[in-house]
Structure prediction request, 602 residues.
Amino acid sequence: MGSALAFRVARTWQGGAGAFLILLGALVALAAPALFTGDPLDVVARPLTRPFTNPLVPLGTDRLGRDILAGLVHGARGTLLIAGSVAAIALIAGAAVGTAAGYLGGIADEVLMRIADATQTVPGFVLALALVSVAGPSQPVIVLAIAAGAWTGPARVVRAEVLSLKERPFVEASRLVGRRPLAIAFQVVLPNALTPLIALAAVIVAAAILSESALAFLGLGDPNAASWGAMIAEGRQVMRTAPHVIIAPGLAVMATVLAASLTGDGLARALETGSSD
Amino acid sequence: MRSLRLIAQRLLAALPTLLLVSLGAFLLLESAPGDAADAYLAQTGGDAGFAAELRQRLGLEGTPLDRLAAFYAGLLQGDLGTSALFNRPVLHVIAERLPTTLLLMAAAVSFTALVGSALGLLAGVRPGGWRDQAITVATLGLLAMPNFWLALLLVLLFGVQLAWLPTSGLQSLGAPKTGLAAALDMAWHLVLPTLALGAGYLALYTRTLRAGMAATWRADHVRAARARGLAERRVVWRAVARPALLPVVVLLGQQVGTLFGGSVVTETVFGIPGLGRLTYEAVAGRDTLLLVGVVMAGTVVVILANLLVDLLLVRLDPRIGASGG
Prediction:
């Protein structure tokens, strides 16, 4: 099913463009240490060099003379790593909670769903801000803080799917064979609920990129890693005379988020039209 | 009264949420390095004896269970503790800043509802047409823009290049403090923050309305309306746009939390003294009690806003009763 779906996604223009941009970003992120061997936080040229004036620093330099292109390329690593990890954790945790709630029912369902309600009510960005502020800004903390507000969507999707699958004959059959409820839940029901989750993953990635960059903009990014949000915050003081220092990293965020949402759109369309298999 | 019953029901349903969120707030306070007494002492200084006295007064002694009891005892009396940063009760500081943020959020919602409805209608009148395509691409772009970056671009364009609009604060220096002139001055200062905060929201709103209309065009009642020979304009308004409004109103409720979160960066960029800016100040000043207070205040805002949306939905769609959903 995987390769057929990938093919259908790539055939929609949204999916094709999105997947192309994401692959490009991932490639750049992976190749970052080879493309720019030095530390992106090193000073390499005259401060505030304009873009397209010095071939050594094609996108110019920031207030301290750091290479903006190197910052962008290295920033892609952090951003994609964080957003990907957030999506993975949110999906796994949400799927686990949703499966348990839908399958066990009763009080367990009630308790888990009330927790999901409460989580959804707290403004997600403020929650992430509070968690990072208390636990200190490092990449794992940032991932967990953003994921803390992102698992409820997957949990609800999986729970609904489980509830509709629960009474189907093949699930009934595994119960009659004597398999334990949780084993059935995770081995039989969950794989069937995966399809809608894939489209949700793209939405979570897009939101996570925006949250991460906003956290970094407010000074809650990992101080040891190059980050687009931090580059924009840094450039704020000089943007009136040198707008290029904030425009380049902003466009990078925008392109990445756009890539994720286009891929999500493509996925949703592919799933809509190809529900026959 | 149906509305009264709905209000009672929703408030009752919000109780477990409030309980869980306050429990989370307590855990956050417990896991923070240092407690409220440390934060206070950092501002005032004092010896170990004073610290012990302070801990006793603030209910920070004993086991975590004792502290939990003291936390809820305070909460029930509306006491969220004292902000170390402002040396005043957290609740007072929040109450002082809240109206500004509510005003900004209301402005963003109104802007969204006005412009979003227009754009959504324009796109949804002919799904697939060139207007629809252009609006779809533009809204995708808006959704992908980080709101703090959009805020900075607006400052650069309208504040610096064109110098049309103020980019900081809520009042001009020497502006009148009361009356119509003061209100106009404030509205003038709110233009850019409203655009920055509302842009992503506007894009979602437009897309939702457009998608709803595109789906409704295929519905039977629309074909029936056309078959009856209704004028095209009336078909658009009566049969297509009105049913598409419901999901848009639902969206309003769902996105209140996002809007509240967005106010943090918006108010920080534009120097607006509201709750969002206060959140940033609490983070920068390591004032955990204040931060936790803001998180709870934000939760209450979301709950009340959703109650408002529910009441609005009942008005719009009589099928939604107090007993349902």
Remarks:
- Chain B touches chain A through 46 residues (CB under 8 Å).
- The longest strand of chain B covers residues 82-83.
- DSSP finds 13 helices and two strands in chain B.
- The first helix of chain B runs from residue 2 to 31.
